[in-house]
Design goal:
Elements lengths: L7 H7 L1 H14 L6 H29 L1
Helix pairs in contact: 2-3
Length: 65
C-alpha cells in the first residue's frame, strides 16, 4: 500500500514545531496591521503546504530506490 500525502491539517498536527516556526517567521515579517492576520495565515498555509509537498516527494523518491 502506497503512503498518501497528509492533508494540511494533518501535516500541521504531525509537525507542530514547524508550524510554530512558520507562524513566528510570518508574524515577524509582515508588519502591515490591517493585513496582518490574513497575511500571516496565508504565509503559514503556503509554507506548510510547500513543506508537506517537499517531504512527501522526498519520501516517495526514497521509497522508489
Amino acid at each position: 500500500m502506497k503512503n498518501t500525502k497528509p492533508t494540511l491539517e494533518e501535516f500541521c498536527q504531525i509537525y507542530p514545531e514547524l508550524l510554530a516556526q512558520a507562524r513566528e517567521y510570518a508574524e515577524g515579517t509582515i508588519v502591515d496591521p490591517e493585513e496582518h492576520d490574513d497575511a500571516v495565515e496565508s504565509c503559514v498555509c503556503d509554507f506548510m503546504e510547500g513543506a508537506c509537498a517537499a517531504m512527501f516527494y522526498k519520501a516517495d523518491l526514497q521509497g522508489r530506490s
